[in-house]
Amino acid sequence: MFQRILVANRGEIALRVIRACHDLGIEVVAVFSEADRGAPYLALADEAICIGPPPATDSYLNIPRIISAAEIANVQAIHPGYGFLSENAHFAEICRSCNIEFIGPPQDAMRRLGNKNEARKLAQQAKVPVVPGSEGLIDNEAEAVRLAQAIGYPVLIKAAAGGGGRGMRVARNDISLRTGLQAARQEAEKAFKDGSVYLEKYIEQPRHIEVQILGDRHGNVVHLFERECSLQRRHQKLVEESPAPNLPADVRDAICQAAVRLVKAAGYYNAGTCEFLVDAENRFYFIEVNARIQVEHPVTELVTGIDLVRQQIRIAAGEPLPFSQEQITQRGSAIECRINAEDPAADFRPSPGTVTRWQPPGGPGVRLDTHVVTGYRVPPNYDSLVAKLLVHQPTRPEAIACMRRALSEFIVEGIKTTIPLHREIFKHTAFIEGRVDTTFIERNWPRS
Ligand code: MV4
Predict the structure, then answer these.
(1) So what CATH class is 132-201?
(2) Span 4-103: which CATH code?
(3) Are the C-beta atoms of residues 201 and 151 closer than 8 Å to each other?
(4) Where are the alpha helices (DSSP H) in 82-166?
(5) Closest residue (by CA) to atom 17 of ligand 1?
(6) What separation, in Å, do the N-terminal and C-terminal C-alpha atoms of the chain show?
(7) Interatomic CA distance for residues 10 and 12, integer angstroms
(8) Each residue's pLDDT tens digit in the chain (448 positions)?
(9) Which of 65, 207, 233, 292 is catalytic?
């Protein structure tokens, strides 16, 4: 096992990794930018090293600075958290070439799955259902029009190098397909230096369901069941839960088994997530793999009792998974609310600044993952997540009641947060009945 790890991230996930290391008896070195200097969570690391000025490109995204810190601190491994360099195959390769283990998947699996068209091909080979669409990349407009007519409108133009909703265009007829192709190519070329695109049938009002997987370096792969993640706004998730409500057990099992087949086909190890769309008839389609620990991983930790970050570290150190598929169970109902420093009444505008009062909820069944304390200053430079409020209860109605209670206890002053919106979501009849899809937030809070 490692004796010393560097966490190449900030905020709540840096703290989450620090805690996992200490639970394993491992020393942990934090890095920080000038914007995070003096943040309270840094004091919980065994050592903290400044890696540069506030802009992420000069600090948390700067590979030479992070590798230098790792060399100076003499660590054996780097945990990338989520975002920043977590899905950067080049960074994973650099770490390993410096004899520092990257706590994540092998770089070749990251590269292959990072290309959504390649991931789609791999899924087809593994007999995992994908959305009906083009057989590979689109070469020219005439071919695209023929394909779209064969698939049937509406279709979705997707950037192969995209993901997380970036570089997508809906086309409902030949004309919008032609203009959409041009725009999508240009956008993808600009954003990812790769203008290649492909087509899929556009699934209207799908649910977004993802499967957590863990694989070790000895070829064992297990799933840790699903998370329902449909409640999102502009591709920013707001609420996640497990089990997914209104998902028949046979469909759930089929999705989880498909996820295992896919990551096995990719030669993947460590933690990962397979994302699926589920339509109104409960047909499911693979869309992409997230090759990292995700923000919402604690939802799965609560229902399975498995510490995913601890397992990530063990796997990276070469240990085999300590459980079989049959030993993993989904117990009770867990729900997470993302608390962002944003103003839901002002188009979710970021609301950085000093937290003058932070009075968190607690009590039975409540978990709060946060790096915030009273007096903490939320810097304006990074994403606005300040806390993840989770509940775990025997049933979904009890989990909803517990979340409403926890949200009512939670007092934050000095910054605006998404707490008031969550209080409304948890009163909404359709949400309470589990009738959700990816359009739920925009349909019910149109001005948000
Ligand atoms: C889709 C889709 C409908 N049909 N693909 C958005 C993020 C990226 N992971 C894939 N996304 C979608 N792909 C087809 N063929 C709808 C979405 C989508 C979505 C997916 C998951 C969660 C939220 C979403 C919000 C809007 C669109």
Answers:
(1) alpha beta
(2) 3.40.50.20
(3) yes
(4) 89-97, 107-114, 116-125, 141-151
(5) 165
(6) 47
(7) 7
(8) 999 999 999 999 999 999 999 999 999 999 999 999 999 999 999 999 999 999 999 999 999 999 999 999 999 999 999 999 999 999 999 999 999 999 999 999 999 999 999 999 999 999 999 999 999 999 999 999 999 999 999 999 999 998 777 779 999 999 999 999 999 999 999 999 999 999 999 999 999 999 999 999 999 999 999 999 999 999 999 999 999 999 999 999 999 999 999 999 999 999 999 999 999 999 999 999 999 999 999 999 999 999 999 999 999 999 999 999 999 999 999 999 999 999 999 999 999 999 999 999 999 999 999 999 999 999 999 999 999 999 999 999 999 999 999 999 999 999 999 999 999 999 999 999 999 999 999 999 986 5
(9) 292
What is the residue with the minimal CA distance to atom 23 of ligand 1? 438
Looking at residue 298, its amino acid is: P
CATH of the domain spanning 207-444, picked from 3.30.530.20, 3.30.300.30, 1.20.1290.10, 3.30.470.20: 3.30.470.20
Q: Which residues line ligand 1 (CB under 6 A)?
A: 131, 156, 164-165, 200-203, 206, 208, 232, 235, 275, 277, 287-288, 438
Q: What is the residue-wise DSSP string for 267-331?
A: T--EEEEEEEEE-TT--EEEEEEE-S--TTHHHHHHHH---HHHHHHHHHTTPPPSS-GGG----
Confirm whether 261 is a catalytic residue: no
Cite the beta strand spans of 39-103 per DSSP E.
47-52, 77-79, 101-102
Which pTM value belongs to this model? 0.97
User: Residue 74, class by beta-carbon neighbours within 10 Å (0-12 exposed, 13-18 middle, 19+ buried)?
Assistant: exposed
Q: Are 24 and 371 in contact, with CB atoms under 8 Å apart? A: no
